[in-house]
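Example complex used in Figure S2.
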Amino acid sequence: MKRLGLIAIMVFGGLLFSISFELPDLGDARSPASTHVSPYYIEQAIHDTSVPNVVTAILADYRGYDTLFETAVIFSAGLACFFLLRITDRKAPKARFYRHLATGLTLRVEKGGRLPEDTKEFERIDSAWVPSDVIINMTCRLVVPFIQLFALYVIAHGHHSPGGGFQGGVIFGAAIILYAISNNLRRTLRRTSERTSALLGSGGVIIYLGTGLLCILLGAGFLNYSSLSLVPGLDPVSARSYGILIVEIGVGIAVTAVMVWIYYNLASAGKLDEGL
Amino acid sequence: MEAITTLIIAKYNYWAVILLIVIGLYAMIAKKNLVKKIIGMNIFQTAIILFYVSIGAKRGATLPIIVHAHGDAAHAIHAADYINPLPHVLMLTAIVVSVATLGVALALAMKIYFHYGTLEEDEIQKKIMDREPDKVATSGEHL
Amino acid sequence: MASLEGVTQHLPAIIVAVPLLAALAVTALWWFSNKLCYPLSVGAGLIALAASAGLFQQVLSYGVVEYRLGGWPPPWGIVFRVDHLNSLILVAVALVSFLNLAGSRVAAEKEFQEKVGAFYALYLLFTTGLFGILITGDAFNLYVLLEIASLTGYALIGIGSGRASLSGLNYVFMGTIGATLYLFGVGCLYVITGSLNMVDIGAILPNLWPSKVIVLAFLLCLGGLFVKMALFPLHGWLPNAYTYSPSVVSSLVAPLTTKVMIYAMVRVTLTIFTFDFAFNKISLQVPLVWLAVLAIIVGSLMALSQQRLKKMLAFIVVAEVGYMVGGFWLGNRAGMSGAVLHIINDALMTLCVFMAAGALSFRTGDDRLTSLKGMFRKMPLTMGAMVLGGLSLIGVPPTCGFFSKWYLISGGIEAGHYGFVAALIISSLVNIVLFFRCFEIAYFEPFSGSAGHQSGPMEPDDRSSTVVEAPADMLITLLTAAVLLIVLGIFSGQIVTRVIHQVIPALTG
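Predicted assembly (928 residues):
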């Protein structure tokens, strides 16, 4: 099996190698890929959409339908991880453990009893618990807000520089995940609950899809942002530009939320805390 | 000699892609560990992403963000000055897809690990045979 | 504001947007109430069905419908392109997914409990992906939608523990290889044509025919889709994936995935590469038909050796894929029409038998063939539907299965390919054996009480004489599907002459 696979793959590789000589050279400006469709984008994007970053213009407008479903793919992945891993019918544990922060003593509370979760003196100890480390905690506390600010910049500045909803969303999600790693999952869940991330995830995609459907209601085709020019003070071209911005924000929200959602389920193997 | 150098410079991107494809596929077929297979799958997808991105390159061109976009109306835009943006857009989608697939594959691998206690395919196969001897494992079980 | 006329103009967008919106809404609302998920999903399914029927009507009266997304003209923007071929399959897919959805409530709640909202959302996303694949006119967009359908499919199939996850992961590996090969093929096409629009590529390609790159692109696209549709040597992922998944899932995935992939093959071959290239310029026709023959034989024989109902049906699906691939690659009008007709017929037949199997295992808690004992008395209506589905798969005249098989066989005779004809007949004979073995167990052997299973979910009354039918909604949708098999059979001739012949080029006569 192993050897047979190796031979088959080598034959496949050899076939590809022999055909590579027929493909256009690297960096050839006269190759069909660079001369048929793409020059239109480069030359007209700025006139059509008023967005200097051509990649953003294509991503969110010319091929905006692809991107809508790209966001839906991410959303499906979050939903799929949740669906596969999340354990919903966990029985309440026999006993809960709480550590008194000042003394380091551990309390064992039985028969379903529990201390209030937000108490300052005790912390809950379970499988999601990580011993806290001052250096890591402080460093991340310093770093996280800047990462988030940078993420917002990347989302908002996607029109003029490399960036956009996906990139910014991933950075924002990474900031929250960094917080979860440096502190612990339970504290992160109190700040950004699973429900919040799921709602934001679907909300972000709804923003995108809703913009598309709004365009139908305004009398143009699906995702044709130029119809947003019914808003006073907008011409069709800048309407497209704003449409792209709205859509990118939706993508950013969805990607952030879904990244966090996937992390929650993968990192805790679907346990999170008891029940939904 | 010079002809060979020119040839290498003109085609090396495809050869790198082919090498990655071969490595990825081989890992998926020959490796017994499920996580290694997942890694192979990712290498394979990355190879295709690299293929597309390398198509977009143009010698002497810069990244596709129009300079002097607003204000300077007399400034003409030449397509030859900017690299092809379309493959980059397409690959943004493909990257997202490969991340999503990776997430789902890892989730499934975790489920398998919790159920069988191992990620080695032959050991899982043995456990299946032990638990359900009446069912012969069919060809679907191994790739 | 949009009037009715405005709505009909936007039908192609509605078909994909409404299920997607419903999926998102279900995910959001489900955190607040579990009760809304089912009605919302069924509503979306119904709207999609109505929209696809409306679109079909439009195509019949006005011809090809083109819808520009974002208002951009074809080679630059993405377009939906709906012709007779995909509008017909669109209706079938919408119908199958709606019927299965409508009948899924009780089983889904039992199977997924609190996660039922996520199930409905994934279900709707899956159908959105299929609609998108069917409707799109853009080669790359097809890949994106393919991944939506696959990802949700992986999750739905891998939900069970143990072997379900294992077969789900294998499906992930094979599915990713398939989709990525297709993506590679599209990349090769893009390198030499510079376009992604199917019609545009189709117009450019004839000028480039000597190029080897086209052949490579063709092989890659086709190979990728073959993995996805589980054509014989690449079918390894399918049987286990369909066997170990929950029955609500398998009765969704089994009828639709492989058929939509076959549509994708037809579309890619005819629209992108064009008939002339695929059948005259390169000589793949003969090996592909023989591959299909092998698929039919192997699928049928493997089905014979199975002890579990769902696994047996899964291997029948493998054989059916061979029918359609072989019929299409015969390259004559009868064979291709038969293949296209068989896509919709097979979607319904597979739905019918998988739903019946789901209903049976819902009551018995097991899908071994031995647990069918006494089922004709216990669940007469479910078994009746099963009989109809079985007869259709065998190819008995009033049911639709007969007509597509008739076209396929006459196509085979016309092409002089007697191997294919023989394979079809052998497979029909095997299907007779398969189903009559089931019916025999179910009819003659008395119900064995609770001996086969301990404390199964059987209702309190176990006596063999009592009728314990499946839940009403499950039963109604199942019977609808069964009746549709006959209705479709009656209209088969019309469908072929009025719809399918519009797209299949009249070639060899």
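The longest helix of chain C spans residues 247-281. Residues 137-282 of chain C form one domain.
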